[in-house]
Sequence to fold (183 residues):
Amino acid sequence: MKTRIYQRLLVKNWSDIDWNKAESDLADLQYEILKAHKKEDYKKVSTLQHALVRSFAARCLAVRKVTSNRGANTPGIDGKTYNTDVEKFEAVKAAYNLSKYKADPVRRVYIPRPDGKKRPLGIPTIKDRVVQTLYLFALGPIAEEQADIRLYGFRMHHGVHDCVTYLNLVCSSSMVAKQYSNK
Fold:
């Protein structure tokens, strides 16, 4: 815990952040959450999740993730994007105390569908996306632990290729071939 506080005190701007250390700290906190969940110590889970959301490493990584993805230059209803290092570091500091946090309304954009109609798309502000990412970091380990092992959609580090590989293994198995040839 002291190393996390120590790092926060040393960092004065965005370029000083040690990303490897931040990723390591986040992974350690997520592992502790998972251990507490496996022991069914839900009070400790809640405490650790709160610590993760407030941790400097998680806030930095959340801002980095939101500001480096494809939608980083798409502003929400407030019209803001965080393009400079100063703005990004201010966002890290602003995400520390979320006790009075209230989400802003989403910006509504209508995008065309293939049939000619338009469907609504809600675009949250960058600040709201950072908070969503923080909560994803806190809830992710438990969600991954409880998810079905054969569930491939909308999971981190899982995709269509994993599903195709699994189906190829199952279908090429001699046991499966014998089972279906007897019918």
Observations:
- The first helix runs from residue 2 to 10.
- The chain has a mean pLDDT of 86.
- Strands lie at 107-112, 118-123.
